[in-house]
């Protein structure tokens, strides 16, 4: 007997869990299964730094327990890696040879580390940080190491660098761009973050490329001839959607799985959501990958509603990047086009804390801050509703949070 499910969800993180919830609101009884290549119950990749640091045990970071799946009549199948899709037969084949039939399929297979084509990298032992097993492996390796090199100064790389430094290792971070977190913050905001890392003994090698890596542990040669020696090497140079199992299925893949405003793919009966999905970017209106939890949750909900035929389903309005980054007890936030420089007006204040407001035609399109938290929900609404700030612009620039709240309370009345 071939296993089958009316609703088959491939993936087990935020997008798949939200789809499950949306489906069950409409169809409490339709058979459902969630397949994951992971061996654990669902967890969020964002908590992995806390496992690395030891602040949280691996069993404390799970998003759902077995009782949840029992209550929602969903079969949870771990160690189930999808390797191919036959869209005509509506069947997914797993690595162990098992074949699952479905009526409606959600592709929520997420992303995996993107490994750069560096000479010698495949000949040395290196770590990545994307799964709970990765986090446990990195934590174990830290215990025996005195020094570390981190490739990449994005969120994953910097979280790990902080954990490694706090554990007493001598840490170097290599980044090709001219500042850290280049996708989320402008250079001035990044400078504040960089200063905190330098103060805590982390050596930042910006505007540098790795040309070669060799053993026995890790000997990292940079493009300026400098050589970094370390016991531990972490590769954190970004991620890419897991789409290889869709090859030959007919599902359209560009940078990720191409979806419409209902999260449908080009193949009947197949939806996609989360880090694997290439949906519309709110600011540009063009297709983009936005790998953050709020996006995954929203896309998962819309996909689930579509799969279950929910008449209340709304179209996806486009992804808006939102990032909260905590470092050494401090916080940096960004939303929208916070790092934009062209065709916009950027207003910066740098008195103790830093903030940067980005406007286009007197409408807010981005906001970033360091050491000065703001209401991300309110600012997100101002951006999404394209509120004209002309009449209160001076007040908004001086007191963005208070003025934003007043504006939105008037909108919501």
Primary descriptors:
413 residues, alpha/beta, FAD/NAD(P)-binding domain, 3 domains, seven-stranded mixed beta sheet, five-stranded antiparallel beta sheet, 10 helices, 24 strands, globular
CATH topology name of the largest domain = FAD/NAD(P)-binding domain
Q: How confident is the prediction overall: mean pLDDT? A: 95
Structural class label: alpha/beta
Contiguous runs where pLDDT drops below 50 for at least 5 residues: none
Shape: globular
- Helix count equals 10
CATH superfamily of the largest domain: FAD/NAD(P)-binding domain
Tell me which CATH architecture of the largest domain applies here.
3-Layer(bba) Sandwich
Give the total of beta strands: 24
Approximate strand percentage: 25-35%
Give the termini distance in whole angstroms: 57 Å
Helix percent band: 25-40%
Q: What is the count of distinct domains?
A: 3
Please state the CA-atom Rg, rounded to the nearest Å. Answer: 23 Å
Biggest sheet architecture: 7 strands, mixed
Reading off the top of the CATH hierarchy, the class of the largest domain is best stated as: Alpha Beta
């Amino acid at each position: 007997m071939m296993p089958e499910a009316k609703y088959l969800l491939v993936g087990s993180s935020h997008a798949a869990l939200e789809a499950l919830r949306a489906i069950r609101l409409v169809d409490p009884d339709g058979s459902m299964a969630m397949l994951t290549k992971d061996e654990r119950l669902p967890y969020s990749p964002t908590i992995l730094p806390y496992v690395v640091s030891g602040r949280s045990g691996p069993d404390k970071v799970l998003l759902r327990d077995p009782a949840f799946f029992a209550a929602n009549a969903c079969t949870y199948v771990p160690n189930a890696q999808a390797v191919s899709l036959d869209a005509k037969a509506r069947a997914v084949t797993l690595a162990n040879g098992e074949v699952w039939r479905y009526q409606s399929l959600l592709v929520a297979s997420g992303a995996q580390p993107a490994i750069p084509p560096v000479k010698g990298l495949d000949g040395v032992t290196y770590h990545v940080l994307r799964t709970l097993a990765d986090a446990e492996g990195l934590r174990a390796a830290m215990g025996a190491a005195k020094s570390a090199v981190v490739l990449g100064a994005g969120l994953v790389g910097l979280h790990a660098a902080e954990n490694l430094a706090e554990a007493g290792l001598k840490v170097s971070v290599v980044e090709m761009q001219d500042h850290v977190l280049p996708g989320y913050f402008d250079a001035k905001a990044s400078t504040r973050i960089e200063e905190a890392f330098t103060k805590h003994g982390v050596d930042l090698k910006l505007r540098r490329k790795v040309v070669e890596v060799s053993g026995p542990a890790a000997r990292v040669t940079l493009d300026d001839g400098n050589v970094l020696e370390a016991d531990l090497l972490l590769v954190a140079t970004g991620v890419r959607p897991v789409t290889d199992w869709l090859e030959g299925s007919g599902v359209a893949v560009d940078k990720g799985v191409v979806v419409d405003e209902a999260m449908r793919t080009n193949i009947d009966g197949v939806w996609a959501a989360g880090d694997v999905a290439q949906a519309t970017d709110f600011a540009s209106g063009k297709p983009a990958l936005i790998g953050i939890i709020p996006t995954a949750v929203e896309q998962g909900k819309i996909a689930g509603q579509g799969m279950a035929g929910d008449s209340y389903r709304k179209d996806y309005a486009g992804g808006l990047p939102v990032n909260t980054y905590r470092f050494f007890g401090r916080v940096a936030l960004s939303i929208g086009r916070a790092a934009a420089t062209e065709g916009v007006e950027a207003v910066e204040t740098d008195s103790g804390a830093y903030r940067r407001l980005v406007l286009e035609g007197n409408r807010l399109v981005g906001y970033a801050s360091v050491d000065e938290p703001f209401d991300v929900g309110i600012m997100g609404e101002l951006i999404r509703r394209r509120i004209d700030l002309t009449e209160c612009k001076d007040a908004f620039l001086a007191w963005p949070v208070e003025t934003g709240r007043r504006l939105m309370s008037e909108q919501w009345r």
